[in-house]
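This part of the workshop introduces the protein records we will be handling. The structure tokens are whole numbers drawn from a learned vocabulary of backbone shapes. The record below serves as our worked example for the rest of this section.

===
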Amino acid sequence: MINQAERLWKRIIERGSNNGSNFKELLNLQSGASDEEFQLLEDTLGVILPEEMKSFYRVYNGQVWETGVNPFVRNLTLSPTSEIIDNWIFLQEEFDPDDDLEPDIEKELKPFLWNSKWVPIAVNGGGDYLCIDTDPSEAGVVGQVLYFWHDWGSRSIEAKNIFEFIEICLNEEI
């Protein structure tokens, strides 16, 4: 799986470099995540991370966000494992599991506004998150990728795993 992750990162960088110089430098990529970082993430969130996610993060452990950083795909900045923990804690505090709002969700997701088993791996800078679902409904699959929109109950499945999500993004028109 690491080879597939490396190929996807190479394609992300090549595609971005075709649209501007210094693309890779402006991604502000961190060196790959370690087993210890994955263990801390799993222990803190109480989840088992999908192997695709681990492989993707073994190549680069997200981006350091600062003004002018390039998104890795779409308008998303990939969070390092430490930021995933910070974002997850924030979302845990923000949403009460007993909220009585009716979320607009797809059948692959459990009917929650926020599920503590969602792993927020990327942000768009506007309070929305791209998440890995480690606790899907019976119709879903572990590792499916979803958008968590902060200002309404809509939750949308984007792909069955992070590799498929990246492929979809790479095949989109720029």
About this structure: The chain has a mean pLDDT of 88.
